Amino acid sequence: MSSRVWLWLFSLSALWGGTFFFAKVALGELPPFTVVFARVALAAIALNVALLATTGGLFGRGMPWHAFFAMALLNNALPFSLIAWGQTQIASGLASILNATTPLFTVVVAHFLTEDERITGPKIAALLAGIAGVVLLIGPDMLDRAVTGVWGQFACLGASLCYAFAGIYGRRFRSLGIGSMEAAAGQVTASTMLILPVMAIIDRPWELALPSATVWAALAAAALLSTALGYVLYFRILAAAGATNLLLVTFLMPVMAILLGSAVLGERLEPRHFTGMGLIGLGLVMIDGRIAKVLRAAK
Q1: Using CA of residue 202, residue 207, residue 213, residue 214, what is the dihedral sign?
Q2: What is the structure's pLDDT at 215?
Q3: Dist CA 110 CA 90 (whole Å)
Q4: Dihedral pair phi/psi, residue 118, rounded to 5°
Q5: Is residue 284 classed as helix, strand or coil in its secondary structure?
Q6: What angle do CA 106, 248, 272 make, to 5 degrees?
């Protein structure tokens, strides 16, 4: 990858790692679906205004709305909601670590849904390392289903599975000739339409107290930085460097989330959580293959 793409990648990891922190702050005063709706709605407004100023808008003819809605469901509506609810039960840093399992799920999904991404011996070893990390993360609580944190962790794992399907489905945007700004705007606009009725029925936001300025700031940051700008970078990296390189962002996101959660929210993770993160990281390294190539070249 070029230095420019690496800069995009590190920027995206910071933006998406911060998402867990922003969401945790907002969830202190608002229910999950309201937080998710505010995040995608504000992002949709910002991106559509930007498009209107630069290209004349998103709602012209020929836009693949079926693809936007499919991507919105898999990449926004379902995973955002699962993570938001999960973060009401667990620390933001732990949620980010569980989110790093996305490439492991992607290996399995790609094996069944693509012709060129079959599971190999090294990938099986990577999956075993990742599974061991997840088991260690959840720990003995897995045996006690009454522990609420267990369900929060499973919700975050469900979000990772959604992201895996989204990564496979999102490949078609390259062939559709849709720019990164249009793809991001179409996705979050469709997500807003999907989340709106769910939020209205379940959360009844008109009955909620007006959130504080801190929560408004967290929502704005999650929407404008982590979502609007983040997905523009996401589609740019996907087009420039491919899905495999894009998945490198999962190495870096937990670091940012853990640092913010510890420094600002006072969250503390147990030693087994860091060991589990190490095993998941080992699985990611094995899937990526870069280090193995460097070691073989050095011999």
Answers
A1: negative
A2: 96
A3: 29
A4: -80, 150
A5: helix
A6: 80
| Digit-coded pLDDT (tens) for 198-213 | 999 999 999 999 999 9
Candidates 188, 183, 259; CA nearest to 226 is 188
* Of the candidate ranges 17-21, 176-180, 210-214, the one whose mean pLDDT is the lowest: 176-180
Of residues 153, 155, 156, 158, the one with CA closest to residue 272:
153
Rounded Cα gap, residues 74 and 105, in angstroms: 14
Does pLDDT of 47 surpass 80? Answer: yes
Q: State how far Cα 98 lies from the chain centre.
A: 10
Tokens of 102: 């996305």
User: Amino acid letter at 47?
Assistant: L
Residue from 6, 16, 26 nearest 257 by CA = 16
What one-character DSSP code corresponds to residue 203? Answer: T
Q: What is the pLDDT of residue 139?
A: 72
The vertex-233 CA angle with 162 and 267, nearest 5°, equals 65
DSSP string, 7-62: HHHHHHHHHHHHHHHHHHHHTTTS-HHHHHHHHHHHHHHHHHHHHHHHTS-S-STT
Alpha-carbon span 38 to 29, nearest angstrom? 13
